[in-house]
Structures are given as structure tokens and as C-alpha cells.
Automatic annotation (TrEMBL):
Any single Pfam family the record assigns to this protein: HTH_1
Domain of life per record: Bacteria
Molecular function GO terms recorded: DNA-binding transcription factor activity; transcription cis-regulatory region binding
UniProt KW Transcription keyword: yes
Protein keywords: DNA-binding, Transcription, Transcription regulation
Protein name (database record): LysR family transcriptional regulator
Domain HTH lysR-type: 1-58
Species, as recorded: Litoribrevibacter albus
Family, as annotated: Belongs to the LysR transcriptional regulatory family.
InterPro entries the record matches: LysR_HTH_N, LysR_subst-bd, WH-like_DNA-bd_sf, WH_DNA-bd_sf
Length: 289
């Protein structure tokens, strides 16, 4: 039983005529007759009495009439509800965000998003980028705003929104600040303050030093870049920081420069996004730099 056969049945019942029903439905009379016959076969009962040119409902037809109207009305209202739902930005959105993005990139976007979509129940967990990556991969979070992995998992979609140029830095009064020319081996002879080994940033640093065959003297590991910046500023060691955190620090003239790191969002390729997530993505893309 489909909507086309029910509409044909209702039209014939209304007009008590197959020809007039055909005109209303923009069909041929045989096509209308075929649809009604198909419905009668499906229900295993006769719906119309045909005496000459007169068409009237049988008891079965009279019983079906209100049900058919209800069915079509329910389908129409359901279609409308789903259409409205497809446009509405509401519900719950759970994302995971790196501390750096949460402090330095997200606030203006979050403020505008909350004002524009007050019906969204937005829950944000702040954690390391690597944790966000894993949680999206395993379906625990719908979206992550993180430092993007250099080689993302094939099940994930990642989009770079911001680009952070990374610099080797030390305090203005650190011994390294007096050197006009430096290389990686020079850095290795001084204390380093770096993120933990499992982070994408630390992995980039270690890749650079891999060819020097010298060991890094990492005295402190923390994944909070603002904490690293503070420790660098008091002369505790050198580090690698994004340009946005280099103010009042000395950028070291290293012959081998760090590449930029990409910050952005990650979603799962095989998970349908909520309208709330789609709306946030559109706002992120508008902020792309």
C-alpha cells in the first residue's frame, strides 16, 4: 500500500467517478483504475461497486475511507516535521577542544554561536589534541577542535581553519639570545621545555632533531602551551611555541625552522552530523585564516 494508490482511492470516493478522479490526479482513467484494483488486490476486498457509470463505496470502502485520510495526513505531517527538523538548529552538541584553541581561538566564535543558537545544549570538554582525535575516531565525541594530525585516520575528516607558525624561543636574557646564528646541536646543549612525547608538536620537534644524533635535555613536559610560555619567559629553558605566544620572547635564529602546525576540526566520515555541528562548522569556516 502506497500513497499513490490511497490518493487514487480517495479521489474516486470523492468524485464517485474514475474519469473525474483521473482529471484531478492528472492521470489517465485506466491508470486510476489500475491503482484502485491494485489496492483491492492488496486488501483482498472490493472497495467500489460499479453499476453502469455509477461508482459507490462498498462497506469495506467506507471503512477504509477515514483510515486512508488519516494515513495520508500522518505522512504529510511527518514529512513536514522532518523538513522542519532538517532546518532547525537545536539539540545537544558535544565537542572536545584543545586548551590552546579554547583560550586563543574559540572564545569569539563560541560567543557568537551561543547567541545565534540558544536552543543548542553545547557541552565542551577541554583536553589534549590527541585525546580529542581518539574520541572522535571511536565515536565518543561528534567533533574535536585540535591540532591536526599530519596523517589522519582514513575514517576521519579534518579541516584546517588556523595555521600557527612555530618558532624556537627563549627568554630575552637566556644565554642563547646572545647568539646571532644557531643550529639544532646548539639548542641540544641547553635545557628544553616541551609538550609530552605523545603530542603532534613534540613529534615534529623530535623529527627535526632525529638527524642530529644528539639527545634533547627536556627538563619539563607539559601540554599547556601557556605554562610552557611562562617557564620560557623566566629563563628556565628554550621551547617551540606558536607565533601567537611569542610576544616578549626572543625568537631564536635557527637555520632549520619549524613548519607551521594546523589547527582545525575533526569529524567522523561515517557519522551523520547534527544540525548543531553543521552550524558550528560553518562559523569555523568563516573564521578560516
Amino acid at each position: 500500500m502506497d500513497t499513490q494508490t490511497l490518493r487514487a482511492f480517495l479521489s474516486v470516493a470523492k468524485h464517485q467517478s474514475f474519469s473525474e478522479a483521473a482529471e484531478e490526479l492528472f492521470l489517465t482513467q485506466p491508470a486510476v483504475s489500475k491503482r484502485v484494483s491494485s489496492l483491492e488486490e492488496r486488501l483482498e476486498t472490493k472497495l467500489f461497486d460499479r453499476v453502469g457509470r455509477k461508482v459507490s463505496l462498498t462497506p469495506s470502502g467506507n471503512a477504509l475511507l477515514p483510515k486512508a485520510k488519516q494515513i495520508l495526513h500522518l505522512i504529510k505531517s511527518t514529512e513536514q516535521e522532518l523538513h522542519n527538523l532538517s532546518l532547525q538548529v537545536s539539540g545537544s552538541l558535544e565537542i572536545i577542544c584543545s586548551h590552546h584553541i579554547g583560550l586563543h581561538r574559540l572564545p569569539p566564535i563560541l560567543k557568537e554561536y551561543s547567541q545565534r543558537y540558544p536552543d543548542v545544549d553545547l557541552k565542551i570538554e577541554f583536553s589534549e589534541s590527541e585525546s580529542g582525535y581518539e574520541q572522535v575516531l571511536h565515536g565518543d565525541k561528534e567533533m574535536a577542535l585540535i591540532t591536526l594530525a599530519p596523517d589522519p585516520h582514513p575514517s576521519l575528516i579534518s579541516k584546517a581553519i588556523w595555521h600557527d607558525q612555530m618558532h624556537f624561543v627563549c627568554s630575552q636574557d637566556h644565554p642563547l639570545a646572545a647568539s646571532p646564528h644557531l643550529n639544532l646541536i646548539d639548542l641540544a646543549s641547553h635545557k628544553a621545555i616541551l609538550p609530552s612525547p605523545n603530542t603532534f608538536t613534540r613529534q615534529k620537534v623530535e623529527e627535526l632533531f632525529a638527524d642530529t644524533q644528539v639527545s634533547l635535555d627536556v627538563v619539563t613536559s607539559t601540554n599547556y602551551l601557556d605554562t610552557i610560555r611562562m617557564m620560557v619567559s623566566i629563563g628556565y629553558g628554550w621551547s617551540v611555541l606558536p607565533e601567537s605566544l611569542c610576544e616578549n620572547l626572543h625568537q631564536l635564529p635557527i637555520t632549520t625552522q619549524m613548519s607551521s602546525r594546523q589547527l582545525g576540526y575533526v569529524v567522523h566520515k561515517h557519522h551523520s552530523l547534527t544540525n548543531a555541528a553543521k552550524a558550528l562548522i560553518e562559523m569555523l569556516k568563516a573564521d578560516e585564516k
